[in-house]
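hi! just following up on the protien thing from before. the input was this:
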Amino acid sequence: MFKMMSKTSRLLAISAVMCLAFAGAAQADLLLGWDFTAAGAPASTTGNVVSVNSTTNDTAIQTAPITRGPGAATAVNTFLDLNQGWGAMDGRRRFTSANLAAAKTAGAYFQWVVAPVSGNIMSLDSLDVVTYQSNVPNVNAGFIEIEYSLDNFVTAGTTVGTINPVSNMWIGQNTNFSLAGFANLQNTTSTVTFRSYGYGFPDYHNVGLGQITGNNTDVGVNGTVIPEPATLGLMAIGGLMMLSRKR
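and the predicted 3d structure came back as:
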């Protein structure tokens, strides 16, 4: 039956089969992740490391750093790796704004970007974020809010969720946020920018991302990525040409 089909029909058939194959095989996995300890943090609590490149990324997802907003980048902030094997992106004394609006005005955030390599479509399933704070008698004092944007926050971002209380005494805790319910994060070729804003913390202690002992993913974006239909079409054309040559 396949031999009786026209070249165009065979191309469409191959494309359809490939689309079904990729869709059926796709399952949520770690697309982009940052392990601050594995990234090679300096064994020091001083300095000003302003960005950390991703340590894990799917080959169809662009490598990207976590960076500091202007209100979280001063000499007292550091990316650190203590003797215990902890790694963190710290925002010491910079997440003290009274509320979220003030934190946005101050630029008190960390930021990371997730984007597919050209020719691919991604769907984001969930976000894992490890957070910590230290020396806080009242662990309910501060908040970390996660938002995302498809226009680099030119317009207001969309709230993913809020972390409160934030784990204290340097322990670090992981919070998992589902992204499956956000329609514009599914089957997209867009660049997605995430920000974690910090506010309401006292000004004498450390607070930030990471801090679980050992090599662990401190920030991770999970989802699926498959080739775009146009890419599958080109692959199908290649397959059709190979079939033609065998005749």
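The chain is about 20% helix and 35% strand.
The chain has a mean pLDDT of 78.
cheers
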